[in-house]
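Design a sequence for this backbone.
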C-alpha cells in the first residue's frame, strides 16, 4: 500500500446537484456518508484530518469564485499548509472551465500537495498521476456541461408550457406547485394591488418612476426584501412582461466576461425583438394594452447614457454617502447652475453640494493628510533600551515558545488514532479533538507570522517614503494641469480608496451653509 508522508492533512466536502436531488428523495445525508469514507481513508493511511473545508449544501458552484471554502483551501494549499487533501473523488475539486481546472492543478502541483481519494493517491510531481488528475477534471467538466444543457432545456420547455422557471417569484406573486412538474404564479393578496397601483400611476396619472418610488416609501410599503423602493426597481417591474400574463425567455440572459483574470457575470437587457414570449398559466395583473403603453412611455423618457468610457465626473466612484453608504453621483443642470454631487437614494436626507466645492475640499484634505503622514513616517522611531521594551524581541521569543508548543501538539495528534481505534473516541469526538488540535497548531503557526510582521514595519516605512508620499505629491501637483475629468479621476484613484460625504443643512438659499459639509478621506496605504 502507498505510504503517505508525515505531515498535516485536511479534507474537502462538496455536494453535487445529484447529491442534492438524492437527498430530496430521502436518501442519506451526503456529508455524513462522505465523512465516514474519509475517516476510514485516514485510518487506512495512518494520518489525521486536521481541518475540514465543507461547502454549504446549496453551493454546487460551477466556478471556484462561487465556492468560498474552495477559495480558502486553494490559498492554504498555495501557502503549503497541507501535505495532502482528502476528497471522495477528484471531480469534487473543480468542474469549472479549463482556467479553473488549471488553477486547481497548478496550486497542488507547485505546492507539492497530495490529493488522497479512496481510489488513488495523486502525486502532482508524478507525470502519470498528473495526467490521471487532469483527465478526471476534464471528465467532470464534460459531465457538468451535459447536466447544464439538460437543466437549461428543461427550463426552456417549462417557459414554452407557460410554467414559471425561476426560483424567486416577481413582486406581486407567489410561486405555486403545479400537479406533476413545475411551478406557476398566483397573485399575492398584499402585493398584487401595489403592482396595479404602480402601473396606474405611471400610465394613467403620468407620475414618473422616481416619484412613484418616493410615494411608496412615504406610505411605508415594503419591498419584497423589506428594503426601500428605488427608481431602478420600479423601472424593472414596468419592463417585466410577467405582469401582463406572459412568460419570457432570453430577456436578460447571463453573460460571462473576464476582467483582470476574474469571470464576471452580468445580465444585460436584450432588444425586445430577441425576446421569446409565451402565454403563462398565471393570472395577469395588468392588461396587455396597459403594459404596452407603459413601454411606450419608457421609450419616450429613456435617457441615452454617456458613451462607454466617457467620464464627466472627476470624483466618479470615489464619494460615498455617509448616511446610506451608496455611491454619490454627478447631477448636471441645464439652467446655467453648476453640476452637483448627490445621493440618488430616494429617501436619503444627505443634502447635495456643488461638485466643484467637494472637489476643492477633497484636494485640500489630501494636502492636510499628506502633511500629517509625512510627519508620522519621517519621524525617527526611538530604539528600545531593554529587551522587554523591544516588540521585535518579544515576538521572536513568542516564536520560540510556539515552536516548542507545536512539537507537543504534534505528539498529541499522533495519539488521536490510537484512541479512535480503541473506541475511546467516537468519529464525532475524534473530529472535534482533531479540529481543536488543528486550531492550536494554527495558533502556534500564527505566532511565526506575527513575528514576521514586525520585521515588515521598516519596509512599510521605506515604502511610504519611496512610493506613497511622492505619489500623493505628484497627484496634487498635476491635477489642475489637466481639464480632462477622466484623467483627473484616474489620478485620484491612484492615491485614494474612497471618501465619505455628509451634509445635513441645505445651502442653496443659505449662503452660510454652502460649505458646511463633512468629507472624510480614506487614502491608499501599504497593506
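Sequence:
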Amino acid at each position: 500500500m502507498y505510504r503517505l508522508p508525515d505531515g498535516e492533512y485536511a479534507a474537502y466536502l462538496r455536494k453535487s446537484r445529484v447529491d442534492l436531488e438524492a437527498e430530496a428523495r430521502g436518501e442519506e445525508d451526503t456529508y455524513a456518508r462522505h465523512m465516514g469514507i474519509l475517516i476510514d481513508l485516514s485510518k487506512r493511511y495512518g494520518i489525521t484530518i486536521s481541518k475540514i473545508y465543507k461547502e454549504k449544501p446549496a453551493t454546487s458552484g460551477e466556478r471556484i469564485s462561487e465556492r468560498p471554502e474552495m477559495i480558502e483551501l486553494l490559498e492554504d494549499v498555495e501557502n503549503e499548509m497541507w501535505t495532502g487533501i482528502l476528497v471522495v473523488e477528484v471531480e469534487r475539486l473543480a468542474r469549472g472551465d479549463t482556467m479553473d481546472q488549471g488553477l486547481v492543478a497548478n496550486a497542488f502541483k507547485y505546492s507539492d500537495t497530495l490529493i488522497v481519494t479512496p481510489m488513488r493517491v495523486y502525486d502532482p510531481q508524478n507525470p502519470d498521476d498528473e495526467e490521471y488528475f487532469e483527465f478526471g477534471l476534464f471528465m467532470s467538466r464534460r459531465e457538468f456541461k451535459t447536466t447544464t444543457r439538460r437543466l437549461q432545456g428543461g427550463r426552456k420547455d417549462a417557459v414554452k408550457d407557460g410554467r414559471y422557471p425561476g426560483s424567486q417569484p416577481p413582486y406581486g406573486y407567489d410561486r405555486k406547485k403545479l400537479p406533476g412538474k413545475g411551478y406557476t404564479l398566483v397573485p399575492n393578496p398584499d402585493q398584487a394591488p401595489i403592482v396595479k397601483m404602480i402601473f396606474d400611476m405611471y400610465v394613467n396619472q403620468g407620475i414618473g418612476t422616481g416619484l412613484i418610488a418616493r410615494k411608496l416609501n412615504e406610505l411605508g410599503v415594503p419591498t419584497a426584501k423589506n428594503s426601500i423602493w428605488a427608481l431602478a426597481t420600479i423601472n424593472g417591474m414596468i419592463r417585466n412582461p410577467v405582469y401582463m400574463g406572459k412568460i419570457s425567455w432570453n430577456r436578460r440572459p447571463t453573460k460571462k466576461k473576464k476582467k483582470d483574470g476574474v469571470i464576471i457575470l452580468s445580465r444585460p437587457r436584450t432588444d425586445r425583438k430577441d425576446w421569446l414570449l409565451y402565454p403563462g398559466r398565471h393570472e395577469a395583473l395588468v392588461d396587455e394594452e396597459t403594459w404596452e403603453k407603459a413601454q411606450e412611455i419608457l421609450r419616450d423618457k429613456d435617457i441615452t447614457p454617456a458613451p462607454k468610457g466617457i467620464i464627466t465626473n472627476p470624483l466618479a466612484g470615489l464619494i460615498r454617502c455617509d448616511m446610506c453608504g451608496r455611491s454619490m453621483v454627478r447631477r448636471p443642470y441645464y439652467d446655467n447652475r453648476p453640476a452637483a454631487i448627490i445621493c440618488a437614494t430616494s429617501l436619503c436626507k444627505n443634502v447635495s453640494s456643488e461638485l466643484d466645492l467637494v472637489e476643492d475640499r477633497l484636494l485640500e484634505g489630501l494636502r492636510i493628510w499628506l502633511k500629517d503622514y509625512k510627519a508620522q513616517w519621517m519621524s525617527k522611531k526611538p530604539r528600545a533600551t531593554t529587551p522587554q521594551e523591544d516588540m521585535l524581541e518579544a515576538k521572536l521569543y513568542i516564536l520560540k515558545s510556539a515552536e516548542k508548543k507545536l512539537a507537543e501538539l504534534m505528539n498529541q495528534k499522533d495519539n488521536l488514532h490510537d484512541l479512535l481505534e480503541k473506541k475511546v473516541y467516537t468519529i464525532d469526538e475524534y473530529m472535534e479533538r482533531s479540529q481543536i488540535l488543528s486550531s492550536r497548531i494554527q495558533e502556534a503557526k500564527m505566532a511565526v507570522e506575527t513575528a514576521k510582521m514586525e520585521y515588515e514595519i521598516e519596509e512599510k516605512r521605506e515604502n511610504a517614503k519611496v512610493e506613497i508620499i511622492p505619489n500623493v505629491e505628484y497627484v496634487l501637483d498635476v491635477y489642475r494641469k489637466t481639464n480632462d475629468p477622466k484623467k483627473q479621476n484616474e489620478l485620484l484613484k491612484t492615491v485614494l480608496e474612497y471618501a465619505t460625504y455628509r451634509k445635513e443643512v441645505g445651502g442653496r438659499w443659505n449662503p452660510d451653509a454652502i460649505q458646511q459639509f463633512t468629507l472624510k478621506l480614506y487614502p491608499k496605504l501599504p497593506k
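Confidence is low (pLDDT under 50) at residues 380-392.
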